[in-house]
UniProtKB/TrEMBL annotation:
Protein known as: Flagellar secretion chaperone FliS
Family matches, as InterPro entries: FliS (IPR003713), FliS_sf (IPR036584)
Source organism, top-level taxon: Bacteria
Organism of origin: Vallitalea longa
Gene3D superfamilies for the chain: Flagellar protein FliS
Family: Belongs to the FliS family.
Cellular component, GO, one term: cytosol
Amino acid sequence: MIANNGYNKYQNNAILTASPQELTLMLYNGAIKFCNQAIEAIDDKEMEKTHNYITRVEDIIQEFIITLDDKYPVSKNFKTMYNYINERLIEANVNKDKEVLEEVLGLLRELRDTWKEAMKLAKIPKNKSTNNITE
């Protein structure tokens, strides 16, 4: 219990000190983790756990939806994708469908990996010599 308390403090500190970009990455990782756990729970025929894990993924996706800024055109694309994922999660939860969860897992990994790449690109400083190039 004491070790768990230390881990919880570490996690809380990581969340409190994270940038918005890092928080988004944490949410993607959390959704992936819960999706994997839901798949395992289906394999173990633990339907209540399956439901709880899928609900956690749904909560994360809802958080993504409500934090989208509609002034950017790309937000519409993300909203469409998140709504699709949410529909599939509902279907997976109702039917306890492992294949649907694996589809969702693939989409979440793709979104997470794209986000990680965008974070890397955002950290690359612009080379002053390329800013003045004209063709």
